[in-house]
C-alpha cells in the first residue's frame, strides 16, 4: 500500500552512525516545521529494547514495539525519522529515504571523537565503505524515493538541507 491519507510527507534520514543524521534531521526540522523523531532516543526513553548486544555494543531494539510506537504519527505524516537502519519500517511510511554518506577519514575522526574504538569503530567504517545502508535502503524502498547525499563538511549539510526543504515544500499528497 503506497497510497496514504497523510497531508505532509514523511522522510527517513538513514546512514552509518556518524554520517550526520541527527544534525541534518534537526536542521531540516527547523527549516520545515516537520517533527524530528530520533529513534535511538525514543527507544531509550520508552524502553523499546530487548537487551544489550555485547559484540556491537548497542541496545537490541524491539522492532515491533518501535513500529507500534510510531504508527499513529507516521499515519498523520510530517515526520523526519532519524535512524541508522531502515529494513523493519513499513515501506508505506516514507515518501523520501535519504542515506547520508561520509568520506572514510572524516567519519573515522567523527567516530573517534565520539569515543568509538576497536571493533565498534572498524565495524562502522566498514559499514560505510561497503555502503550497507544505501544497499539496505535500495532493497527496502522504491528506487525513485531513495537518495544518497554526501555529508563531509558544512557546505554539504547546508546544501542537503536546502534541497530537502525545497522537496518537502513542493510535496503533494497523492490524490
Ligand atoms: P549521526 O546522528 O548520524 O550519528 P551526528 O549528526 O550526531 O551523526 O553527527 C556526528 C558528528 O559529526 C557530530 O559531531 C556533528 O557535529 C558532526 N557533523 C555532522 N555533519 C557535519 C558536517 N556536515 N560538517 C561537519 N561536521 C558534521
Ligand atoms: Mn544520531
UniProtKB/TrEMBL annotation:
Record region (NMPbind): 38-61
Family: Belongs to the adenylate kinase family. AK6 subfamily.
Region (LID): 113-123
Assigned EC number: 2.7.4.3
The protein's role, per its UniProt record: Broad-specificity nucleoside monophosphate (NMP) kinase that catalyzes the reversible transfer of the terminal phosphate group between nucleoside triphosphates and monophosphates. Has also ATPase activity. Involved in the late cytoplasmic maturation steps of the 40S ribosomal particles, specifically 18S rRNA maturation. While NMP activity is not required for ribosome maturation, ATPase activity is. Associates transiently with small ribosomal subunit protein uS11. ATP hydrolysis breaks the interaction with uS11.
GO cellular component: cytoplasm; nucleus
Compartments in which it is found: Cytoplasm; Nucleus
GO terms, molecular function: AMP kinase activity; ATP binding; ATP hydrolysis activity
Keyword presence, Magnesium: no
Subunit structure: Interacts with small ribosomal subunit protein uS11. Not a structural component of 43S pre-ribosomes, but transiently interacts with them by binding to uS11.
Natural source organism: Protea cynaroides
UniProt-listed Gene3D superfamilies: P-loop containing nucleotide triphosphate hydrolases (3.40.50.300)
Keywords: ATP-binding, Cytoplasm, Kinase, Nucleotide-binding, Nucleus, Ribosome biogenesis, rRNA processing, Transferase
Domain of life: Eukaryota
BP GO terms, sorted: ribosomal small subunit biogenesis; rRNA processing
InterPro entries (UniProt xref): Adenyl_kinase_AK6 (IPR020618), P-loop_NTPase (IPR027417)
Name by which UniProt lists this protein: Adenylate kinase isoenzyme 6 homolog
Stretch forming the signal peptide: none
Binding locations of ATP: 18, 20-23, 114
Catalytic activity: ATP + H2O = ADP + phosphate + H(+); AMP + ATP = 2 ADP
